[in-house]
Each structure stands twice: as structure tokens, then as C-alpha cells.
């Protein structure tokens, strides 16, 4: 037991639940004390790997007075009903991104805060990456001058591997494919870096040979309130990459990391690259940070 830490539960015990549980074990501020999944097999596997007890039903977790909040790592279309159940129990809600699979459900989740007096947080964790925060510092300190253009890409090969028995196969459960599952991180990061966005347009395509319902290629253009523009791309049929590039009138910054390290956040720095390039002759004077 961690002294003084906030005790939370976790609902949904798949791959990402284990990533978050390992990360939480290294924090003195939070302690995951119970997990729940409808699958007995997943409950047993979680207990064995994480050393944290699971419960046979969600109500056993929600009725525990020591648990102050619940992490949701369930499929997108389940975010609203599970968040509603958690909020009604008076627990704080942390849901993985995207907040929901439809705008209507997202607004209903937002309304849970005022209806039940709890807080809802969405897991837009990518804006917390060190490279992104250093970019924000450089922008705020005017190291790059006026920002005029940004581009970002988050891709992996998931659409080459999905099958009809997985929720990501279906349009209503993973709308936009990589747009809602990957590019959502980059939309949040570019909003964090660039401010208010006033216009959005997007196109998509389906090129995976497996025959899934969802699109697997996504390209989106953004216009900001101050006039700068940006592009966000996501391919679901390509080796993984996560990258952001910010262009200013005095310099540019580039940040990328290897997607294969995504599940081990404490090791992301081992495969990441961040550099700043200043002035018109700066190509040969890139400073790796």
C-alpha cells in the first residue's frame, strides 16, 4: 500500500490497462487497487501479471468506499455507459481517448460532471511527452518566431492485423479508423501547441487487404484562429511512427519517436529524436536536444 496515494479501480483489462497499471505502480500519487473485466480469463491474467486483485462484477468495485476514481480502458462505444455507471457511484472518471465514439455520447459524458458532481478526464497523454512540452516552451519563449505551419503523423500497422472479432474492425465502434484511434493524439497535441482551431477538413481511404469496415488512411487539414495552418496524417497500414514538426519564421523543431516503444513510456526517450533548426542556413546547424 502507498501511503497518502489516491486509490482507484480500473475497468477493462486488456493491453492498455496493463500499460497504465505498470505506469501507476511507479507513481506515489495513485494506486490501482482493483480491476474488472467481463472476461474471467482477462481477470485472471491481470491478477497474475500485475499482482492486483480483480472483482467478479463492476458493482463490487464501485461499492468500495476506498476507491475514489475509476480508469476506463474499454472499447470506445462502451465509454458512455461505463462512465455513467462510475459517475452515478460518485467516483471520478478517467477515460481513455477518444472520449466517445460519437459527438452525442461525448457531450453526455461531459454532462456527467455537473449531474453527479464528479470530474471527467480524457487520456490525452501525448501532450505530456517531453518533446512536445519542450516544443511548447520554445514557442512560448519565441525561439521559433511566429508559428506559421505545423504537421503531425501517428501511424502503425493495426489495420493489417485486425479481424472481425475485434471492435476496431467496425465503423460504428472505431469511426475514422486511425483518425479516432491515433490521430486524436495529434489533434490534441497541435491544439496544445497552436491554440484555437477554427476550421477542419478531412479525407479518408480504405486500402487494407483484410476487408475491415473502417477506413485505414486519414488526412486532416486545420486552420487556426491566428491564420496558421496544420496537417495531421495517420496510416493504419504502415510501420509505426509518431512525429510532430513546427515551423516558425525564425526556426523549426522536429520531434519523433519509435512507435514500438509506445507500451513502455519510461523508455520512449531511448528511441526519440528532437532537434531545433534556426535560420535560413540552419540545415547544417541542427541542434539535437
From TrEMBL:
Q: Which InterPro entries match?
A: Gfo/Idh/MocA-like_OxRdtase_N, Gfo/Idh/MocA_Oxidoreductases, GFO_IDH_MocA-like_dom, NAD(P)-bd_dom_sf
Any one Gene Ontology MF annotation carried by this entry is: nucleotide binding
Domain GFO/IDH/MocA-like oxidoreductase: start-end pairs? 133-252
Show the Pfam families listed in the entry.
Answer: GFO_IDH_MocA (PF01408), GFO_IDH_MocA_C3 (PF22725)
**Gene3D superfamilies with a match to the protein in the record:** Dihydrodipicolinate Reductase, domain 2, NAD(P)-binding Rossmann-like Domain
Q: Any idea where the Gfo/Idh/MocA-like oxidoreductase N-terminal domain is?
A: 7-124
Which PANTHER family has this protein been placed in? BILIVERDIN REDUCTASE A
- What name appears for this protein in its UniProt entry? Gfo/Idh/MocA-like oxidoreductase N-terminal domain-containing protein
Amino acid at each position: 500500500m502507498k501511503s497518502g496515494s489516491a486509490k482507484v479501480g480500473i475497468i477493462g483489462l486488456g493491453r492498455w490497462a496493463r500499460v497504465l497499471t505498470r505506469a501507476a505502480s511507479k507513481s506515489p500519487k495513485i494506486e490501482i487497487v482493483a480491476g474488472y473485466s467481463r472476461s474471467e480469463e482477462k481477470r485472471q491474467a491481470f491478477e497474475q501479471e500485475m499482482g492486483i486483485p480483480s472483482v467478479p462484477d463492476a458493482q463490487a468495485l464501485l461499492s468500495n468506499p476506498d476507491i475514489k476514481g475509476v480508469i476506463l480502458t474499454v472499447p470506445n462505444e462502451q465509454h458512455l455507459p461505463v462512465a455513467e455507471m462510475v459517475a452515478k457511484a460518485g467516483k471520478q472518471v478517467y477515460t481513455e481517448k477518444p472520449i466517445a465514439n460519437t459527438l452525442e455520447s461525448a457531450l453526455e459524458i461531459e454532462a456527467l460532471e455537473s449531474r453527479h458532481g464528479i470530474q471527467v478526464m480524457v487520456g490525452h497523454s501525448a501532450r505530456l511527452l517531453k518533446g512536445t512540452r519542450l516544443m511548447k516552451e520554445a514557442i512560448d519563449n519565441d525561439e521559433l518566431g511566429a508559428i506559421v505551419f505545423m504537421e503531425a503523423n501517428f501511424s502503425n500497422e493495426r489495420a493489417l492485423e485486425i479481424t472481425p472479432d475485434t471492435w476496431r474492425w467496425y465503423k460504428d465502434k472505431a469511426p475514422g479508423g486511425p483518425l479516432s484511434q491515433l490521430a486524436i493524439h495529434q489533434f490534441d497535441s497541435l491544439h496544445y501547441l497552436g491554440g484555437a482551431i477554427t476550421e477542419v477538413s478531412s479525407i479518408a481511404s480504405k486500402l487494407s487487404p483484410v476487408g475491415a469496415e473502417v477506413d485505414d488512411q486519414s488526412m486532416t487539414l486545420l486552420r487556426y484562429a491566428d491564420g496558421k495552418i496544420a496537417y495531421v496524417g495517420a496510416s493504419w497500414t504502415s510501420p509505426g511512427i509518431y512525429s510532430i514538426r513546427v515551423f516558425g519564421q525564425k526556426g523549426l523543431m522536429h520531434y519523433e519517436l519509435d512507435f514500438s516503444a509506445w507500451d513502455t513510456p519510461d523508455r520512449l526517450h531511448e528511441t526519440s529524436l528532437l532537434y531545433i533548426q534556426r535560420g535560413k542556413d540552419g540545415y547544417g546547424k541542427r541542434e539535437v536536444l
